[in-house]
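Suppose a colleague, Dr. K., hands you the sequence of a protein chain of 286 amino acids and asks what its three-dimensional shape might be. Before reaching for any lab equipment, you can write down a predicted structure in C-alpha cell form. Begin with the sequence itself:
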Amino acid sequence: MMLDAHGFTAVVVGRTPTGPQPKRDRPTQAGKDGTVTDPAATVASSQREASDLGVLLAEMGAVLLTAETLETAVTLVTRLATAAIPGSAGAGVTLVDSRGRRTTGASDAFVEEADALQYGLNTGPCLTAWRDQVPVRIDDVEHETRWPQWTAAVADLGIASVLSVPLRAGADCLGAIKVYAREPAAYDAHAEALLSLFAQQAAILLANTRTVSNARTLTSQLTEALVNRDLIAQAKGMLMAQGAADDHSAFGMLVAASQRSNINVHEVARRVVATVSGEPADQLSS
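The predicted structure, expressed as C-alpha cells, is then:
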C-alpha cells in the first residue's frame, strides 16, 4: 500500500498480508432495550422454528386424515398448537358453523374453562378474532381493558398472556384458534406470525375434516331413514294382515300408538314387527 502523487491510496494487488491478522468479531445488533443480539443466531433460531413448525404441520396433516370425528380433529390441533408456539401452556379451538353451532376443543382443563367463560359472556379475545377476522393479542391479562369481565375471571386460572387468530379457509372463517401463557408478554409479532401460519394450514385441514364428517352424518341419516321406511312398510303390512282396512288405516294406527306412548312412529313400527315376527326389536335395524 502506498500514496501516489495525488494523495490517494493504492493497493498492491496480488500480495497476501503477512503476520498475525486481527480477529474480526461477528456483527451484532442492539435492541431498543440495549440487548445485543447476533443476527446469525437469530436466523438459525428462526430456521429451527420453521423446521419444527414444518414437522408439526406434517404431523397435523397425518393425524387429521385419520380422525374419525371433527371433535377428535379439533382436540388434536390444540395439542399441536401448544407445541408449535413457544411459551404456550395450552391452546383451544372454536369452530362456528353457518347455523351458529360451535365445535370446541381444548388441550387442557384450564383452557376449556377459559373458553367456556368467553361463550357464557359472549365476549373475549377468541370470539373477537373470529367475528372481526383479525389477530388478537393480550400482553398482560391483569392490565387488559377490552374484555374486563372475562379478564377478571381468567386471572384466577393463572393466564397472563393470550394470542388468538382467525381460522380462515378461502373466503370462509371457520372460527379461531388461541394459545394461553402463564407469563406476561409471552407472545410477540413473531409468535403471531407463527400462529397465523399454523392456523392457515389447520383451517384447510379442519374444513376438509368437517366436510367428511358431515358426509358421514348424512350417509348415516339416509341409511337410518331407509331402514325406518322399510320397518314402517313391514308394520303396515302386518297390521293389514290382522284386519286393518288399508295402507292408510294401518299407518293411522301406528301414528295413534306413537302419540299414546310418546315415542317415534318408526320405533312403534319396530315393536310391531318384533312382536309379530318374534325377533328382538334391537335387531330389526341391522
